[in-house]
């Protein structure tokens, strides 16, 4: 009987060791599986981040190229859609620029003209690409000449910039109502001075480089400053001698 009890005790111990071994093995397997999953997940996360960075860089490149392509564009709205071909549309745009806006513009100063979108019965905008940025800026400067007509012009912004400008409208109105002199420039809100503040700076105001000063006045002031510094330096040398 005693021998049977010893055998049963040994069997029980073996079972206990076996259970502990199985439990340790299970934990090791779980740990190995979790580690493998974590490694795989980390690899996927690294690759995802790399792809996101590449996509972001490519998007910036695309936005830059798009911005450069639109740099010399002007969009004309409300131009009657009566043309039959490209030459007719070009002639109409030239008439608007030269006769309505009083800006001298030749055929060669316009690279392309084209209607935007499909013809659905409404007057489509016309995108005009100028050959030079300076002529584009001159036309934009004279946009007020179209105020008493059904036409108006705008710059050709990228979709991203248009969305940003739309988002800034609320803040722009709020700041204007609070008395700030602000305007939208590209995709940012900027402050600007009135003509009176620019050309009639109060006497004694701190303005190192007034916009009302002519280039000649600025050159004379720079020369006088340099001369004063030279005289001061010469006096120091004389004192040392």
Number of helical regions: 6
**SSE pattern, N- to C-terminal:** HEHEEHEHEEHH
Q: What do the pLDDT scores average to?
A: 78
Strands of the widest sheet, in order across it, are 2-3-1-4
Rg:
38 Å
Tertiary shape? elongated
Low-pLDDT ranges: 194-216
Give the % helix.
55-70%
- Oligomer kind: single chain
**SSE-based structural type:** alpha+beta
Major sheet characteristics = 4 strands, antiparallel
Strand content: 5-15%
Distance between the termini: 124 Å
Give an overview of the whole structure.
- Helix content is 59%, strand content 12%.
- It has 6 helices and 6 strands; from the N terminus they run H-E-H-E-E-H-E-H-E-E-H-H.
- The protein has a 4-stranded antiparallel beta sheet with strand order 2-3-1-4. A two-stranded antiparallel sheet has the order 5-6.
- The longest helix is centred in the first third of the chain and has 69 residues.
Can I get a quick summary?
The protein has 241 residues and is an alpha+beta fold. It has helices spanning 2-70, 86-100, 133-141, 159-177, 195-199, 215-240; strands spanning 73-77, 110-115, 126-130, 152-155, 182-185, 188-191.
């Amino acid at each position: 009987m005693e021998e049977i009890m010893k055998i049963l005790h040994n069997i029980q111990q073996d079972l206990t060791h076996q259970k502990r071994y199985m439990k340790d093995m299970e934990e090791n397997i779980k740990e190995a599986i979790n580690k493998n999953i974590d490694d795989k997940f980390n690899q996927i996360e690294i690759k995802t981040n790399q792809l996101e960075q590449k996509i972001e860089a490519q998007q910036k490149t695309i936005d830059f190229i798009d911005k450069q392509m639109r740099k010399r564009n002007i969009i004309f709205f409300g131009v009657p859609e009566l043309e039959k071909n490209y030459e007719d549309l070009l002639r109409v745009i030239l008439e608007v620029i030269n006769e309505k806006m009083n800006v001298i513009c030749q055929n060669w100063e316009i690279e392309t003209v084209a209607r935007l979108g499909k013809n659905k019965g409404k007057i489509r905008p016309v995108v005009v690409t100028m050959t030079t940025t300076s002529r584009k800026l001159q036309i934009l400067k004279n946009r007020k000449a179209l105020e008493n007509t059904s036409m108006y012009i705008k710059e050709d912004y990228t979709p991203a910039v248009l969305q940003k400008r739309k988002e800034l409208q609320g803040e722009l109105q709020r700041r204007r109502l609070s008395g700030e002199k602000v305007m939208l420039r590209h995709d940012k809100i900027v402050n600007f001075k009135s003509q009176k503040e620019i050309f009639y700076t109060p006497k004694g105001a701190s303005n190192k480089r007034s916009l009302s000063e002519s280039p000649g006045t600025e050159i004379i002031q720079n020369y006088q400053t340099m001369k004063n510094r030279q005289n001061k330096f010469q006096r120091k040398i004389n004192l040392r001698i």
